[in-house]
């Protein structure tokens, strides 16, 4: 499905570039192409750009006015720009799942401690006491959350004793 969509975008891009670079554009063909884009595109921005271009392109078919021709060329350019944005390569890993945190990093987050700072036992115990006030079962917290909090403190105080899960 995604491959078919990419193929369709590439063919639209080529056709739009051909129409835009032509000495005298065939506005009827441009109208058919943009109507197809407006009808079949799954991207809302591309669909909207195509729908906005259609009236100007239809007007350019039967009009020799230079202003209308320029407006039609600009509209083709807008649709082409949206297609370029959709087909441009994306760098990085935008849709990648986040990296799994180590047990130490999960413990630091649970206690509200920074991830990349050297901690002393006193820092860990202060963070534990601060977090435990709200999570203790006697003060409305859950028993499991309190046990998890104590385990997080143990992981940070004795880092080599626990394996990553």
From TrEMBL:
Residue ranges constituting the J domain according to the UniProt record: 106-165
Highest taxon in the source lineage: Bacteria
Protein name: Molecular chaperone DnaJ
Lineage of origin: Bacteria, Pseudomonadati, Pseudomonadota, Alphaproteobacteria, Hyphomicrobiales
